[in-house]
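Practice problem 4.
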């Protein structure tokens, strides 16, 4: 995997020399885990409490070019100290197929923080509307009307006499066909070859290349998202591709970039970047092989073994470890007491994490108390020339504080108990044999897994979520669990086996 390093020091208590230390440890981490460093982004005398960091923003923008898959930081607080900024920028990176990893903190995040981040990303409807409103205010007059601003239209679109985007009836079905073909397993090269064989051309009258198809599959204009410079407006232009189909295609493209031969294996290694060797602490990566009978097998292997760093950790079958992890997650999902405990801890964590909101609420309570005292004095006849002026001042303070509180709640995407419960309980009825559901379960609940020769430590994203499990229990479970990765032959055992364990 290609990786970049992000290093930062703030002006308050660190020096220039600390950058060199961060870079050294990040490079050592990359070497241990078989990663290739392709760039460095360094912000000097910049605090992580603000996103106004030039190199940080440059790195976020560069992630869209897909030149790297990993961002290595010395510690996670180098990336961001505000969990809401962290969730926002990690969401952007995730869409670009990039993951943030700490070189000195093997566990990717802490307890409820990761679960809260996952929920913030999964319940971002209000945020999206707010973002649309903010971006609209900064558009040029032409962009405010969602008009074409020059250059070639994407294949499938045309422009009318008023510079409005319209659907090209000739090529729009071709675009939709390309998305459906890729979603159904056809490779980009195969799509391009098929279109060229049918005599289809680009807007410039040239053959359709692999890059043309790749850019098409990445283009969010096809789901109706209007973009001009940094302004993004969902629904600002006609859509050609359903959003659900577009998102499935993006997931598959990210997956294939991480493992280019994935389309041949028809299987995704779901525990990549989450499974670690208990002996040396390095990541365990997915690999596959074929025995003399032509039967393909898949497993996770410590990179310390792969690159001969002195580790002798044995491999583990992919299906064995993934099925068992899904089984343990589903036990939690179907346990009402566990769900209640998670909700309670996340709400507490969220409340502690926002220091501004409690201060504003306390200040509002104080102002309202003073206003009530003044009204009581007026009722008792204690009135002077400044009484009404003071009452008006307190009234204005109340209004301003209420606005500040509302703004803080909106900007921080605070989630109440009912939304948390709705988000978690949707997993109860989920089909754990479906690949997309398995991916969602693991990304939401699993923080890290340390695999030893005789046990594994499963670290989940909530307080006291660490479970130490004998490896014999994993092996016993695997003897009854079916292979559940979509696209692979199923074992003869009934698919109800996994559900029987969960229930």
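Answer key:
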């Amino acid at each position: 995997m290609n990786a970049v390093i992000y290093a930062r020091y703030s002006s308050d208590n660190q020096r220039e020399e600390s950058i060199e230390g961060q870079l050294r440890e990040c490079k050592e981490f990359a070497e241990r885990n078989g990663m290739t460093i392709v760039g460095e982004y360094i912000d000097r005398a910049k605090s992580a409490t603000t996103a106004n960091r030039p190199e940080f923003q440059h790195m976020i923008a560069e992630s869209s070019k897909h030149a790297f898959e990993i961002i290595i930081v010395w510690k996670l607080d180098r990336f961001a100290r505000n969990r809401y900024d962290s969730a926002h920028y990690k969401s952007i990176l995730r869409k670009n197929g990039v993951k943030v990893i700490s070189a000195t903190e093997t566990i990717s995040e802490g307890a409820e923080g990761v679960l809260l981040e996952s929920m913030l990303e999964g319940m971002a409807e209000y945020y999206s509307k707010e973002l649309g409103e903010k971006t609209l205010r900064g558009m040029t007059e032409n962009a405010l009307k969602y008009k074409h601003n020059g250059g070639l239209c994407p294949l499938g679109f045309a422009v009318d006499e008023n510079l409005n985007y319209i659907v090209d009836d000739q090529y729009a079905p071709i675009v939709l066909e390309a998305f459906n073909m890729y979603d159904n397993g056809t490779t980009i090269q195969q799509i391009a070859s098929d279109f060229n064989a049918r005599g289809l051309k680009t807007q410039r009258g040239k053959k359709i290349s692999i890059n043309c198809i790749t850019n098409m599959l990445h283009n969010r204009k096809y789901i109706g998202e209007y973009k001009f410079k940094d302004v993004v407006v969902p629904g600002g232009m006609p859509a050609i591709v359903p959003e659900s189909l577009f998102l499935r295609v993006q997931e598959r493209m990210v997956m294939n970039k991480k493992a280019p031969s994935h389309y041949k294996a028809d299987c995704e290694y779901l525990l990549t970047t989450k499974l670690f060797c208990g002996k040396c602490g390095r990541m365990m990566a997915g690999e596959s092989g074929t025995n003399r009978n032509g039967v393909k097998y898949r497993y996770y292997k410590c990179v310390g073994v792969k690159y001969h760093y002195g580790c002798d950790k044995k491999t583990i079958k992919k299906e064995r470890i993934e099925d068992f992890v899904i089984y343990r997650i589903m036990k939690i999902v179907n346990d009402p007491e566990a769900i209640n405990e998670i909700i309670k801890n996340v709400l507490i964590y969220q409340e502690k994490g926002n220091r501004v909101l409690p201060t504003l609420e306390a200040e509002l309570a104080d102002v309202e108390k003073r206003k009530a005292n003044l009204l009581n004095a007026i009722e008792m006849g204690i009135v002077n020339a400044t009484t009404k002026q003071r009452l008006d001042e307190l009234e204005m303070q109340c209004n301003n504080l209420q606005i500040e509180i509302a703004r803080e709640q909106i900007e921080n995407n605070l989630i109440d108990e009912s939304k948390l419960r709705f988000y978690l309980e949707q997993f109860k009825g989920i089909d754990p044999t479906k690949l997309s559901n398995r991916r969602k379960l693991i990304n939401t609940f699993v923080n890290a897994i340390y695999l030893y020769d005789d046990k594994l430590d499963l670290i989940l994203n909530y307080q006291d979520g660490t479970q130490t499990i004998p490896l014999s229990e994993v092996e016993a479970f695997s003897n009854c669990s079916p292979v559940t990765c979509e696209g692979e032959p199923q074992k003869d055992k009934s698919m109800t086996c996994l559900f029987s364990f969960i229930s």
